[in-house]
Structure formats: structure tokens, C-alpha cells
Amino acid sequence: MTQPSRSSLLMVPALAWLTALMVVPCALVLALAFFRRGIYGGIEYTFTLENFGLVFDPLYAGIFLNSARIAGTATLIAVVIGYAAAYAIAAAPRRWQPVFLFFAVLPFWSNYLIRTYAWIVLLNREGLITQLLRWLGYTGEPPSMLYTEGAVIAGLVYNYLPFVILACYAPLSRLNPELAEASRDLGASAMTTFRRVILPLTVPGIAAGAVFVFVLSIGNFVTPALLGGGRFQMIGNLVYDQFLTANDWPFGAALAMALIAIMLLVLTAQALAADRASGRIAEAKGRVNG
Amino acid sequence: MSEPRTLLAIDKVSKNFGRVTAVDGISLDIRENEFFALLGPSGCGKTTLLRMLAGFETPNDGRILLDGRDIARTPPNKRPVNLMFQSYALFPHMSVRANVSYGLEMERLPAKEIRSRVDAILATTELVAFADRKPEQLSGGQKQRVALARALVKRPRLLLLDEPLGALDKKLRGAMQLELKRLQHEVGITFVIVTHDQEESLVMADRMAVLRDGKLLQCDTPHAVYEYPADRFVADFIGVMNFVPGKAAGDGVLAANGARISGRVPATLIPGAAAVASVRPERIRLFPSPETANRVAGTVEALAYQGLDLQLHVRTALSPKPFLVRVTADAADRRPVASGDAVELGWDAADVRIFAD
């Protein structure tokens, strides 16, 4: 074996990069959160906890809850659609699977903003969907779809769906097809087979995909700004406003820290759950050898 | 003994995948309580046939009658047939007990009955100590027993086993062959086993079917298949056989070098047709008596000591390949031979089988 001290040198560039561009800025923002806002904007360097107190103000706490609800809904929809798509891809003939996966991630080739603008073109009062309805014979008022919570959720689902597809495809494609056959052979219907064999064995993929969508959605500010028309504030927009409009950097910093705390909580919970699962396996293997 | 009852009748069943015909008009009867083997090289259609019996494939043509009822189109969860998968297909997220209980839960039996039946089958398969383990904590042999218990606990009319011993090492395989036979006797369920291992089917099966290219070549007891193969392929596939190519004559085969191998010529072979005479290695004697019907001189090329017996490769003028001869250790001790020795081989006309070539 190589000496651990020498091989760990390989981590230096990555650590340096993360320190300079992640740890230091985060520490600066964290520090900022403990100061007062100056009377004419700017920062007054006296220590305070007021900013964090304000985060729990019903007005802002409500925005946090609202963000969590929107992100949660988007996550749920993305998981259902993404899992179904991943299931279909994994069931397709082997040689077609890479092609379908390629199409699943194809939207990533264009810019996030452009993809979101495309939804405006679709959902607009006189947009493509309205035109399609007209063409189908609909004559009433054009439906108002843009600048609704539904539009925000649709945008989030659309943007993060490929992550769910990829995360769910991995365990689904590795699943031994004979397991489903064995379940059928033992008397289970197709539905029971899915519920008792396929789903439990692919939960890790669902969890990974779901955490991804939730964490990216709850902090998102572009999609609610563009598709929500500023009427549906999420934490991301609030932070953005504090820094760039209200000029209250300390409060913006406190909000950003609260958001990071929520994300860390979700990620830690998922890591602990995954660890418990693999811990069980390790413990089990230990018993075999013992 | 009463006349054995037919449990499963496979009636002119065919299955093709696109342009490939996997099973080509096979008809077979499998009897109540018998241990039946489907044997053939890979690609012969045995696995497809098994999957049609389990319900995972639907025949394009023909009927599959179980107790007289056509089940060819019955889904797998609705037929009293269970399959033990080659990969065992144990549910990795369930304990041994949960794996074995699964099939009974699907029948919606009362919890008490499930428990007692699972306990009983775990005891039969000697798995009680492993009931709470997950499949990944089991050895290959233990996994195999769980797969067997999981299928047997359902008390199927028919148990299908797909290469059940393929994943085990040679020594364990020998033990499990006897174990499977004992279990089959104990539970009184009809077993149909798919294997490519001719030795395995000879040891375990009451009757066996030899398949090739989707067609049934022969269906009989292992003894009959070994001693009276239906054709050249079966003769070659089952056990070891020495072949002497030549032309059919009235009372045997004329080898290329002009020598005559005496034996009974099947009525279907017209004199002069390409034919092959064959004899099993254990039927050949070294230094035969002068009245032996078939005799040939040869040179020992190689010896392989195999414990119980000695295998000789003897070069003769009869065939391009050396003859394989099995001599018991006893006989080899009485009259030792060495590589390079000139010997004479002999065998009776009754031990010769003649096939079209």
C-alpha cells in the first residue's frame, strides 16, 4: 500500500479550491449575519443576534414554509414522473437504454434560464398551450397559467426531472429481473410484485433523486422570479431581494444561513438513513464471518 | 404397482422468438411423483420449455395440460407450478423466513398456518438456524436450500428447477444431488429439472428427455438413454462414446480401413449408407479372448489414473481419434500397461450401437 500521507496530497488542489471558493465565502456570509444593518444601507460592525430572530418572524417563517411546500410538491411530482420514466427506460431493450437516457438529459445542454423562458412561451396567455386549446376548438377565456404557483412547480419539476430519472435508473437497471419473476411465480400479482419487491429495492435511488430535487428547489430563485412573476416568493427570492433591493446584507446573510441549515439537515438525514442501511449490511456481513 | 398417472402433458408445443424457433413441436408426458430431467446443450430450448411450464413464456402453438387442464395461457401467479431459479432469485431485502413466507402470504392464508408451514419446511431443509438471516449472509448451498424451501412451501403440483446445482462447486453438487432426490421423495412432489450436465440427470432423474435445436430426441429412463441412445448425437452427448465411422453392411459397419465391426444394424439403415459404430469405454476389454466378435490392435498413447479406474487412450487403425478404454484398477494391477505398449482391444457385438452418420 502507498503511504497515506503521500496519497492524501492528491486532495490538496480540491481542498484548496473548496476552501477558497466555498468555506471562505460562507464564513464571510455567516459573519455578516451577526452585524447590524447601517442606517443608509451598508453594515454597522456591532454584534447582534437580531437578524436570526427576524428569520423566525411569522412573515419570513411563512415564506420558509411556503418554499418547503412548493419544493416538496415539485419533489413529489418529479419523483413520480421520473421513476416511471426510469422504469420504462430500464425495461427497454438494452441497446436502446443509452439512447433514452441521452434524451432524458438532453435539456441540460441548454442554459437553465433559456429552458425556463421556454416555459413562459408555453404558458403565456397567448402562448403555445392556449393556441393548442384554440386549435382544438376552445373559445373561452385563455387560462391563466403563467405567474401561478403551478407554473413555478412545473418549472422546477421540468428542470430537475433528469436528476430523478438518472438516480432511479441506476438501481432499476441493476435489479435482477428474475426477482420480479420469482414474485409472480410465488403467486403475487404485478402490483404486489411492484409494491413488495421492486419498490423497496429501488428506494435508495428515489431518496437520492428526491433530496436532489428538494434541496435545489427550496433555494431556487430564478424559476419563482420568472414563472411566478414575483408574486410567489420563495426564500431564494427573499435572500436576493435583501442583498440587491433592500440593501440589508446582514438579514440576507442570516436568511441564507437558515436556508443552508435546512439543506444540511435534509442531506444529513439522507446520509444517516443511507448509513444505517449500509451499516446493517456491514453488521450482517460481520456475523457471517464471525 | 399401479400404472403411473400422467401429471403434465406437453402436447406439440412450439415457441419462436422472431425468426428463431426455440422449441419445435415437443410432446412429452411427465408422470405424477417422478423426477424428470430436461437435458441438452445450451440453446437446445430446455430453458424456454421450462419457462413455458412456469408461465413466463406463452407457446405459439400446442397445449400444456396439467391434470388435464390447459394452462398454456394461465399467468404464472395463477398456476400450481413453482420454479426454482438458476440465480435462486431470493429477495435480498427479506430475511430467510420472509422469503419463504412470501408465497403463502400471497395465498392469504392465516398467519398461524403460514408460521407452522414455514417452520416445517425450514426444518426439512435444515434452515432453522438461518431463519433471521438475509440472503447475502448465506453460503451458496444455504441459498440454494432457501430457494428450494420457498418453492416447496407452496406445495406445488409441479416443481421446476432451472440448473439448480450450477452455482455450486463439484463436491457440494454431488451431495446436493442426493439431497434433492431425498427431498423429492419426502415431499412427494413432481420435480422437473433443467440441466446441461448429463451426469447430473443420469444420477437424479427417473426419466429424462434429451433436446437439441428445440426438438425432442429421446425420452426414457437414464439407463435406456445411456445404453440405447436414439441417435448419434445422444450417444455422443450422454457419457463417453467411441465412434468408428464407415458404411452400413448387413451385419455391422465396414470401417474405412476395411475392418468389420459386428453389431445389430437398425432397419432404417440401408447397406452402403454412411454409418457409425459405437461402443462405450467400459465395454471394451484389453487382451480379449480369441472368440470376441470385435478385436483390434492398437498402441497405448496415454494413461489417466482416475482412482477407481484407469483411462487409456489407444491409437488404432479404425478411427482418426484414439479409442477411450476404461480399465478397472483391479484389472490394471493384474496386467499393467504403460504408454507405448502394443495392446489388443475387444468388445462384443451386443455392446455395439450403430447409427446413421
From TrEMBL, chain B:
Instruction: Tell me the InterPro entries matching this sequence.
Output: AAA+_ATPase, ABC_SmlMolc_Importer, ABC_transporter-like_ATP-bd, ABC_transporter-like_CS, Mo/tungstate-bd_C_term_dom, NA-bd_OB-fold, P-loop_NTPase, PotA-like
Question: Mind telling me which GO cellular component terms the entry cites?
Answer: ATP-binding cassette (ABC) transporter complex
Classification via SUPFAM superfamilies: MOP-like, P-loop containing nucleoside triphosphate hydrolases
Catalytic class of the enzyme? translocase
What does the record give as the reaction this protein catalyses? Answer: ATP + H2O + polyamine-[polyamine-binding protein]Side 1 = ADP + phosphate + polyamineSide 2 + [polyamine-binding protein]Side 1
Q: Tell me, which GO biological process terms does this entry list? A: putrescine transport
Provide this UniProt record's keywords sorted from A to Z: ATP-binding, Cell membrane, Membrane, Nucleotide-binding, Translocase, Transport
Superkingdom of the source species: Bacteria
Its Enzyme Commission number(s) read 7.6.2.11
Question: What is known about what this protein does?
Answer: Part of the ABC transporter complex PotABCD involved in spermidine/putrescine import. Responsible for energy coupling to the transport system.
Q: Which proteins does it associate with, and in what oligomeric form?
A: The complex is composed of two ATP-binding proteins (PotA), two transmembrane proteins (PotB and PotC) and a solute-binding protein (PotD).
Q: Which family does it belong to?
A: Belongs to the ABC transporter superfamily. Spermidine/putrescine importer (TC 3.A.1.11.1) family.
Query: What is this protein called in UniProt?
Result: Spermidine/putrescine import ATP-binding protein PotA
Q: Whose protein is this, by species?
A: Mesorhizobium mediterraneum
